[in-house]
Amino acid sequence: MRRVVALVALIVILGGASALLFQTSPLAQIEAWANQLLTPAQWALAQVSNGVREPLATLNEARDLRQENARLRQQLEQLALVESQAWALQWENQQLRAELGFKANFPELAFLPAEVISFDPLNPIQGVVIDKGSEDAVQPGMTVVTAQGLVGRVTRVGSKAAQVVLATDTTSAVGGVIVSSRARGIVYGQRRPDHLLMRFIPSSEQLTFGDIVMTSGIGGNFPQNIPIGRVVAVRQQEVAMFQEADIEPSVDFTHLQRVLVITNFTPLSLEIEH
Amino acid sequence: MQAAWWPLIPPWGIRPDLVMLLVVSWSLVVGVSGGLRWALIGGIALDLISIAPMGVATGSLALAAFLGGLWRRRPSGLGPRRLGQLAILAALYQITTLALLAAAGWPLDWRVSLQQASLPATALDVALLPVVYSIAERIHRLGQPAIQW
Fold it and tell me: Is a pLDDT exceeding 80 seen at residue A202?
């Protein structure tokens, strides 16, 4: 115990003595000079070290940023893909909902969905080819519609595809009726996707802008009450028996993609059988 | 390509007659036999996918290719006379198509078809023909063997 006390006392005395000695002795003075001399060098070294460290850190950051950039780009591409798929699904969903609503209006008709796979390559003809044919029970004369209304009529059928003449073709003539007045006429194609012409409407009938035109069923080639379009202009001559109207089709023929073939409506054949 | 490349019917309802552009240009460059060969191939392909009666596209293309072949390299290059020939061939193709459709019993409305289809299509084709003709000329020149002295 006495030894320990003696050792502590010795350390305290030595520490105090050395502190006293360095404060006052030439050694302390030497240390101060040395510090003064070394400080600029230390500062310079620190500057150099910082100057090297910062670019190195920047390089490392750049490498990390490049990797992160590549990863983010990849994520962005994946997101764009997901977004386009979502848009496609949303569009398809809208189409299917519209088709469902359309089908509900015609419970007596059977519909076969089909996709438009090509357009007629000859300019004078307005027609499309659909991806359903005789293997799917498609037959010539069948009516083709979309959820918006009348598209046309099947003319030729292959095993896996069928050709459809559009209602806008100049050879197309469909019996039409104006919903508000029940006035009848014949709707002709004008080879333009945004224009049909309804002729032979009795002059006594009053037509107004926006009147809805539907298939009349007269002639037996098309089912009744399929929307055709709406009246956008009327031409009437004072002495003529009939008037005619410009019709804007309800179907967007410039964006035909998905159609429905009415498979259980048989067009009437007006040919006399011998 | 002509039937499916343009996925939509454009609002004005007219698409360029790609096959005709190629066949007419080629016949002007290589002559009657080469032009007729491609008219036959292109025409049958078009007839197979068209609603029109079989032979309408082939017949129209063959006539345009034949006349184009007769005008082969007279003059060469794209001068006013050549441009005139291209316009005549484009119009001839459209008129022949309508005539053959009518001859085949297609219930054609001549006035509407001329106004809405043939005239605008001719204008579009005439605008594109010089480009396609220049490309056809270059391709033909590339295929020629180099003259060695």
Answer: yes
Contact between A170 and B3 using a beta-carbon 8 Å cutoff: no
- DSSP letter at A134 equals G
Report the sign of the C-alpha dihedral through residues B15, B21, B24, B28, in that order. positive
- A219: phi > 0 → left, psi -120 to 50 → alpha, else beta; which? left
What's the rounded Cα separation, in Å, for the pair A88 and A197? 34
Of residues A271 and A110, the one with the higher pLDDT is A110
Helix H segments across A25-125?
Answer: 26-105
ipTM higher than 0.85? no
Chain A contact present for B121, CB below 8 A: yes
pLDDT at A274 over 50: no
The residues, ordered by sequence, that sit 6+ positions from B22 with a Cβ below 8 Å of its Cβ are B38, B42, B132, B136
User: In this structure, which amino acid lies at residue A197?
Assistant: L
Asked if residue B100 has pLDDT above 70, the reply is: yes
The Cα A262–Cα A252 span in angstroms is 19
Interchain contact, A192 vs B116, CB within 8 Å: yes
B93 CA to centre of own chain: 6
- Taking the C-alpha atoms of residue A187 and residue A214, their distance in angstroms, rounded to an integer, is 10
Is B104 an interface residue toward A (CB < 8 Å)? no
Give tens-digit pLDDT for B37-90: 999 999 998 888 888 888 999 999 999 999 989 888 666 667 788 888 888 999
Which residues in chain A are contacts of B94 at CB distance < 8 A? 123-124
Considering the entire predicted model, what is its pTM?
0.69
Q: Is the model's pLDDT at A265 over the cut of 90?
A: no
CB contact under 8 A, B8 and A124: no
Distance from CA of B121 to the nearest CA of A (A): 7
Q: Phi then psi for A137, rounded to 5 degrees? A: 70, 20
**What 8-state DSSP symbol labels residue A253?**
G
Task: Tell me how far apart the alpha carbons of residues B79 and B68 are, in angstroms, rounded to a whole number.
Answer: 15
User: Which among B12, B51, B110, B119 is the top mutation candidate for probing chain A, defined by the most A β-carbons within 10 Å of its own β-carbon?
Assistant: B51
